[in-house]
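Support case: user asked for a sample of complex input and structure output to validate their parser. Sending the pair below.
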Amino acid sequence: MRLRTWGVVAVVAAVGLTAACSSSKRASGAVNVPRAGQGIGSGGVPGAKFTPKPCGPEATAAAWNGPLPGPHDAVPAGGTLDKIRQRGFLIAGIDLNTELFGYDPKHDNNPQGFDVDIARAVARAIFGSDGHIQFRVITLADPKTGEYAQLHAGNVDLAVMTTTITCARMQGPTPMNFSNPYYTAELKLLMARGDDGQPQNTSLAALKGTGTKVCATLNSTPVAEIKKTLGDAAAFQVPNALDCLADLQQAEVGAVYTDDALLRGMQSQDPHVAITGAPAGESQPYGIVTNHPDSGTNDLTPFVNTALTNLIQDTGPTGWRTLFANDLGSAPTKLPVIPDHYPLGG
Amino acid sequence: MTIAANAPTQVVATQGGSGAAVPGAPGGPARPPGTRTDRRLVRLRAALAAGALLFGAAGIIGTQIRADGADDAKAHSGVMIQQAEQIYHSLSDADATATTIYLHVGEAPADLLKAYNDDLQNAQTAILAATKEAGDDSAALKALNQIATQLPQYVKLNATAAANNLLGYPVGFRYLLQASNLMQGTNATATAPPTGILPWAQVLTDTEAKNLSSAEDTAKQFPLLMIAVGLLMLAALVVVQVRETRRTNRMFNVGLLGATAALVVAFAWTGVDVAVQNGHEDNARKRGSDQVSALATARILSLQARTDEMLTLVGRGTADDKETDYAGTTAANGAHVPGTEELLAAELRDASRLATDTTGRQLANTAASDESAWHTQHQGLRAADQKNEYEKAVDSALGQHDFAASKPSAAKSFTALQADLDQAIKHAETSFQSEASAGSDALAGLEIGLGVLALAMAAAVVRGLGRRIAEYQ
């Protein structure tokens, strides 16, 4: 059902709503608080202080006009896709420190994970066969050059790395193009398992008054929520989400509050911790980021959106559901949702 | 004063027996009260004898101070600074080695594990030795305490990192990074004390360098009191002799002349020894303190650069700030903050400049050329990593596969640089030790000599004036 809604939205949006986001840039005022499991440092966007405007499904909804071109069909000359075709492979920016999503367990440059498989699926959609992809490990936030500097510099075509789609990121001083969500993360709590070995049912609010320190990535949305719910002293901020697992193991903190995608990865590295059964916080839709063109045509985002729609509909061995089950260890209970509005992120 | 009181009587006794016919034993038969000149001469004799002994005492004290300084430079401060540098070097090397081990897939190579364990043991041994030597030096003890109490935490973090790495869990890298950050710490600022381990090792090294420098200053302290007393003494002897010559029409008073000669000998001896010692202390400072410290700093910087190289590779994009540490940054306005590598190259140039002999300079120059080769390899491996040739970058960093053994690699150049630096430091330290020993040996015998000369001066004065006094009796 949801799938149908998804497709419809995509098609509707294709009819020229793409301008919605590009026309609503640059205001000034509030401090930028980024969203995402992968929070970014305070200097993630150098000098950027602005209030993002609310944005809805239209902001990511560009879709390919008609059926996707096959590997030998013509693509618009001079576009991003044309460039990739001529090069012979797609350059995908990934993260290698997120267990289950992007990681290299044997340090042998053989990346694995859900993000990696989604990037491979996009390359397959472009070239019709496997092997036309080069991975580059990129940094979400470089304190000196800002968010996704490699992407903006054109060193990679797209980035698949548990990045939450936010209005701020789409409207910022160095705007990004996002695809529709390929995964919907939720804010969850990770704690030690109970005495019975089962996951606890504790919620963030239930930790109030216990003096428990809760870990999250520096300057990320979860930090703001922890502060709001438990007070400033309860928030324990670290440079990288995975530091939270190390700190939980060393009893520096009592819980970790971040995207379930990241928590799944932590859970798989330590049998003694588990995501609690408490209801999730705000949804964090993850999108594929493509380079926002300074000039010329970005036809990669529409292509990726349509390819993603196909991938999600595909129930075969290379479809979204299978990739999800293989990489994340359990079959999906729901498909990625296009929200009524994206997190503001500002 | 007891000597001064006894000496004259004895001298007078022997003299009276052989020279004049009058027996002059103490407590002898009562004689007519002396003339004015007689009493004046007795007082003068006592004053000159006392002056001679005072001169001897001042000389001995001055020499003692310098000898203590020289011993301190050779022993206490010298030992402390060596231990401090041993701690600093072992721990930096442990960190570079731990990050290198992490980059290996699976079980760690035995030689690296041994190097890591040896580093930790050497550091522990040096901490114990330094604590024992520190005595009541509270600044040194505080730094040693900080290092010793944080070290177990560092070892624990590394062990957890290694265990996770064996299982292929990325959280291991976070432990590795926490360990390395604890080790590298942050240096003290005007308002905040240092954090971490190595910055405290830096504090220890700085403290001891300061102590060494003040010991060296003490060793070179000019014996002012001795000179002052000696000059007064010389003036007094000259005046008395001139007046006696006029009064008696004799050309010389043998006793007073002998005293003057003893004084001049004492001056000359002290002057020569002090000059020789100053020369050695200056050389010790030049070769020892200055060149050893430039080389030791270079060795620490090379290990930090190696740690940066490794962490950037292991971090796979999450530790790129370590490459920034290595390479430095240039702001939009052109302001350049030098990276570890630049500082290292500069330090090696200094070491070459400060070398005092050809061997020392050659060793420093070899180190500089290996450093430059390493930097080239480093840039090559960074470029490979950027081009998605991660394995190639790792192979160069570890010196394996296509980069094994005889072929140029970052690992090979780095290892060569370490060997160069070890050799250069050993060479410079040998120069330092021999100069410092020669410095403290230069004063050997001077104290006793000054004592003997002072007694001889006193005796000569007493004898010389004793004759004149006897003439009145």
